[in-house]
Specification:
- The protein is α+β, with helices and mostly antiparallel strands and about 120 residues long.
- It has helices at about 25-35, 45-55, 70-85, 105-115; strands at about 5-10, 20-25, 45, 85-90, 95-100.
- The protein is globular and about 35 Å long.
Amino acid sequence: MSERDDKIEIENAVSPGHRQRVDRAKYTAMRDALLAVLPAAAPGLSVAEAKEALLARLPDDLFPGGAKAGWWLKAVQLDLEAKGAIARAPGKPVRLFKTVARSPRRARAASSSSGGRA
């Protein structure tokens, strides 16, 4: 795998247009863990509840003892919000849930089948 393939470009829901390249393996592991623990309806889980629930799902070789999980959780959260795969419930604290309309796989499939228009 080339160095370019080792990275993935992510978006930021609170800074539209801001993109960042991050480690693909860590992003994918965190995305899969987060989507596995989030409910499909509001009110969802608080970020702290989501982190607690997903830590056991993270591979120890990428996140030894949960190291850096908080940063990666926030990066993946903001990217998935920007893509419409997860949403915030109204109120505080921030509570997250999966959206039914779009998942990352569905978004990629829609993008591929529409010539890149999502």
